[in-house]
Amino acid sequence: MTAYDIIIRPIITERSMGSVADKKYVFEVAPQAGKVEIKRAVEEIFGVKVAKVNTMIVPGKAKRMGAARPGRTKEWKKAIVQLTENSKTIEMFEGMV
Protein backbone atom coordinates (compact mmCIF):
# COMPACT_ATOMS: atom_id res chain seq x y z
CA MET A 1 0.00 0.00 0.00
CA THR A 2 1.47 3.37 -1.03
CA ALA A 3 1.32 6.62 0.93
CA TYR A 4 -1.35 7.90 -1.47
CA ASP A 5 -3.53 4.85 -0.71
CA ILE A 6 -3.32 5.57 3.02
CA ILE A 7 -4.14 9.31 2.94
CA ILE A 8 -7.49 9.59 1.14
CA ARG A 9 -8.33 13.29 1.54
CA PRO A 10 -7.91 16.26 3.90
CA ILE A 11 -10.88 17.20 6.07
CA ILE A 12 -11.62 20.90 5.58
CA THR A 13 -14.15 22.06 8.17
CA GLU A 14 -14.38 25.10 10.40
CA ARG A 15 -13.44 23.00 13.41
CA SER A 16 -10.44 21.31 11.75
CA MET A 17 -9.15 24.63 10.39
CA GLY A 18 -9.17 26.09 13.91
CA SER A 19 -6.36 23.74 14.94
CA VAL A 20 -4.09 24.48 11.95
CA ALA A 21 -2.39 27.25 13.98
CA ASP A 22 -1.28 24.53 16.45
CA LYS A 23 0.08 22.45 13.51
CA LYS A 24 -2.72 19.88 13.76
CA TYR A 25 -4.15 18.59 10.49
CA VAL A 26 -7.11 16.26 9.90
CA PHE A 27 -7.26 13.60 7.15
CA GLU A 28 -9.54 10.79 6.06
CA VAL A 29 -7.37 7.69 5.98
CA ALA A 30 -7.69 4.07 4.89
CA PRO A 31 -9.61 2.04 7.50
CA GLN A 32 -6.89 -0.63 7.77
CA ALA A 33 -4.02 1.90 8.19
CA GLY A 34 -2.27 2.07 11.57
CA LYS A 35 -0.80 5.12 13.29
CA VAL A 36 2.78 4.32 12.23
CA GLU A 37 1.73 3.91 8.59
CA ILE A 38 -0.22 7.19 8.68
CA LYS A 39 2.80 8.98 10.18
CA ARG A 40 5.11 7.66 7.43
CA ALA A 41 2.60 8.54 4.69
CA VAL A 42 2.17 12.16 5.87
CA GLU A 43 5.95 12.62 6.22
CA GLU A 44 6.52 11.19 2.72
CA ILE A 45 3.77 13.14 0.92
CA PHE A 46 4.19 16.55 2.56
CA GLY A 47 7.85 16.48 3.67
CA VAL A 48 7.10 17.33 7.32
CA LYS A 49 7.97 15.81 10.72
CA VAL A 50 5.05 14.23 12.61
CA ALA A 51 5.05 14.22 16.41
CA LYS A 52 1.79 12.42 17.13
CA VAL A 53 -1.16 10.74 15.38
CA ASN A 54 -4.64 10.24 16.86
CA THR A 55 -7.16 8.10 14.99
CA MET A 56 -10.88 7.45 15.34
CA ILE A 57 -13.63 5.63 13.48
CA VAL A 58 -16.47 7.96 12.44
CA PRO A 59 -19.74 5.99 12.36
CA GLY A 60 -22.12 6.29 9.42
CA LYS A 61 -25.33 8.30 9.77
CA ALA A 62 -28.87 7.23 8.90
CA LYS A 63 -30.05 9.02 5.74
CA ARG A 64 -33.08 8.82 3.50
CA MET A 65 -34.16 10.32 0.20
CA GLY A 66 -37.88 11.17 0.22
CA ALA A 67 -40.14 8.26 1.10
CA ALA A 68 -37.63 5.62 0.00
CA ARG A 69 -36.09 3.11 2.35
CA PRO A 70 -33.62 4.60 4.81
CA GLY A 71 -29.94 4.01 4.17
CA ARG A 72 -26.65 4.81 5.83
CA THR A 73 -23.57 6.83 4.93
CA LYS A 74 -20.31 4.91 5.07
CA GLU A 75 -18.20 4.48 8.18
CA TRP A 76 -14.71 6.03 7.79
CA LYS A 77 -11.46 6.53 9.69
CA LYS A 78 -10.19 9.98 10.67
CA ALA A 79 -6.62 10.85 11.67
CA ILE A 80 -5.53 14.01 13.51
CA VAL A 81 -1.84 14.56 12.80
CA GLN A 82 0.25 16.79 15.14
CA LEU A 83 3.50 18.10 13.62
CA THR A 84 6.65 18.83 15.62
CA GLU A 85 7.44 22.41 16.70
CA ASN A 86 10.34 22.84 14.25
CA SER A 87 8.54 21.21 11.30
CA LYS A 88 7.36 23.28 8.36
CA THR A 89 3.61 23.64 7.80
CA ILE A 90 1.55 21.90 5.11
CA GLU A 91 1.06 24.47 2.33
CA MET A 92 -2.25 23.02 1.13
CA PHE A 93 -4.00 24.29 4.30
CA GLU A 94 -2.40 27.76 4.36
CA GLY A 95 -4.88 29.80 2.29
CA MET A 96 -7.93 28.36 4.03
CA VAL A 97 -7.41 29.65 7.57
Topology, element by element:
Elements: H1 3-6, E1 7-10, H2 14-18, E2 24-29, H3 35-46, E3 50-58, E4 62-63, E5 71-72, E6 76-83
Antiparallel strand pairs: 1-2, 2-6, 3-6, 4-5
Q: What is the count of helical runs?
A: 3
The rough form would be described as globular
Could you tell me the number of beta strands? 6
Element pattern in H and E: HEHEHEEEE
CATH topology category name: Alpha-Beta Plaits
Structurally, the number of domains stands at 1
**Strand fraction:** 25-35%
CATH hierarchy: architecture:
2-Layer Sandwich
Arithmetic mean of pLDDT = 92
Contiguous runs where pLDDT drops below 50 for at least 5 residues:
none
User: CATH superfamily, called what?
Assistant: RRM (RNA recognition motif) domain
How is the main sheet built? Answer: 4 strands, antiparallel
| Estimated radius of gyration | 15 Å
Helical residue percent? 10-25%
CATH top-level class: Alpha Beta
> What assembly state would you assign to the polypeptide chains in this entry?
single chain
What is the straight-line distance between the termini? 31 Å
Structural features:
97 residues; alpha+beta; Alpha-Beta Plaits; four-stranded antiparallel β-sheet; two-stranded antiparallel ribbon; 3 helices; 6 strands; 22% helix
TL;DR?
The protein is α+β, with helices and mostly antiparallel strands and 97 residues long. It is built from 3 helices and 6 strands; from the N terminus they run H-E-H-E-H-E-E-E-E. Strands 1-2-6-3 form a 4-stranded antiparallel sheet.
